[in-house]
Amino acid sequence: MATRTMFRSLNKVHSTLYNHLIGFRSKKVTLKYFGAGIATGIAIYSISSSRVIAAQTTLNIQNFMAQPITPVDELEENSNDMKAKMELLILKIQAEFCKALESLEDNDSRFKVDRWTRKEGGGGITCVLQDGTVFEKAGVNISVVSGTLPPGAIQQMRARGKKMEEGSLPFFAAGNKDGSKQWWFGGGTDLTPYYLNEEDAKHFHNTLKEACDKHDLSYYAKFKKWCDDYFYITHRGERRGVGGIFFDDLDMPNQHEAFQFVKSCAEAVIPSYIPLVKKHKNDGYGYAERQWQLLRRGRYVEFNLLYDRGTKFGLYTPGARYESILMSLPLSAKWEYMHEPDPKSKEAKLIEVLKNPRDWLNST
C-alpha cells in the first residue's frame, strides 16, 4: 500500500476475512498479494419497531464514508429505533475499517466510495480499493434495504424455521397477518489463510472469544462450531479457512442485548485482523506461492457463488446491485485439474486444517 510496483508483497497469512453483521450483508475484501478478503456490510431483513435505551441526537456525517442511506433528520428523530441504531453502527464501523485499511497503504491508494440507492427501497455504500501496494482488492460494503421479500428469499428463511407467509412479504419491518413482527440478527467473521500460521489463527480466535465472553460464555464455542460448519465447501470436503464465529436468527435474550453483542463483534474486527496485516505485509514470496494463492482463491469463489447465504439472498432481492454483491470476488483466481499439493508441503499442512477444524485456543 505504499508505491505501486509490478510485484507486491505476498503475505504468508494470505487471508480472507469475511465479516457479516446483522441482516446486513457483509461484502468481502480481497487483499493484494497479501491475498485476503474482508467483508463488512448489512441488509437488515426485518426489524421490529421496539425502542432501546439511549441514542445520539446530532449526527456528524463527516465521520462516515458517505451520506447515510436514511435521511439524516429521520435518523436523528428516530435515533432510539433499532433500525436507525443499526444503520448508524454500520456506518461507523465501515468508516473505521476503511481508515484502518488505508493506513496500511500509500497515499495514492484510497477507497473509491460509491453511494447507491434502489427504487424498491433503501440503498448502500460500496467502498472498494484496488491495485494497492498491500491490497490487491479490498471492499467494505454496507446496505440498508427495505421493500418486498420475493418468494425465493422467503423460502430460504422458512427453511431455517422463520414464520413466513406464502408469496412476497414486505420487510423492514416484516409483519405477518397475525400482527407478529419478525426480527433477528445474524453475522460472522472468518479468516481464510493461504498458508497456515498458527499464532495468527490463535490471535484471531482469541480476540473474537473476548468479544463473545462479554455477553455469554457459551457464545464463542457455539458460534465457532457454527462457523466451521457454515464455511464448508461440500464438494471439496474442506472448510474455506481457519474459522471464526458465525450466527444467524439470533433473537435472544432480547433485542437490546442482541444488538449489544453484535456491536461487540463488529468492534472486534479491526483488532482481530489489522495486526496480522501489519505483521506480514512485507513478507516475501515466489512464483509457487502466488500460484497456490490463486488456487485457494478459486476455492473462495466456489463457496461464495455456490453456498454463501448472503450472496443468494442478494441475488434473490429485487433491484439488487450486482456489482456490490460480486465485489467480494478476487481480481484473479485459477483452477487446475486434479491439483494435489505434496503431502509434506506447507500447502498440505493448510489442507489438513481445512479438512479437520482445530480448537485454536486449546491446541499446542
Automatic annotation (TrEMBL):
Keywords assigned by UniProt, alphabetized: Oxidoreductase, Porphyrin biosynthesis
PROSITE patterns, sorted: COPROGEN_OXIDASE (PS01021)
Family indicated by similarity: Belongs to the aerobic coproporphyrinogen-III oxidase family.
Signal peptide: none
Pfam families assigned to the protein according to its UniProt record, in alphabetical order: Coprogen_oxidas
Assembly information from the UniProt record: Homodimer.
Protein name in UniProt: coproporphyrinogen oxidase
Pathway the protein contributes to: Porphyrin-containing compound metabolism; protoporphyrin-IX biosynthesis; protoporphyrinogen-IX from coproporphyrinogen-III (O2 route): step 1/1
Domain of life the protein comes from: Eukaryota
InterPro entries per UniProt: Coprogen_oxidase_aer, Coprogen_oxidase_aer_sf, Coprogen_oxidase_CS
Gene Ontology molecular function terms on file: coproporphyrinogen oxidase activity
